[in-house]
Amino acid sequence: MPEQGGELLMWHQTLSVAEFDARRQGAYGIDVASLPPPDVVVTPSVGDLLIFDARRLHAVSAPQGQARLALSFFVGYRGDDEPLTCWS
Can you give the C-alpha Rg of the chain in angstroms? Predict the structure, then answer.
């Protein structure tokens, strides 16, 4: 983790695909400056595993001074009698 920045910012809000596409205006994502303050801010430590609902709005604050490395993947739940499914 960098000394400053790199926090996971999360909002309780979800957007439809159409609303997300309209708000991002052709960019990769929505400009965080156009959003209200996040509902949750998490500062992970090296080695932390964070599990959250990626369908909700989320972002990573800009790291300052050094890079922030993260790995991500998806976990699917298909029922109590089925194993979890992981993919990237």
Answer: 15
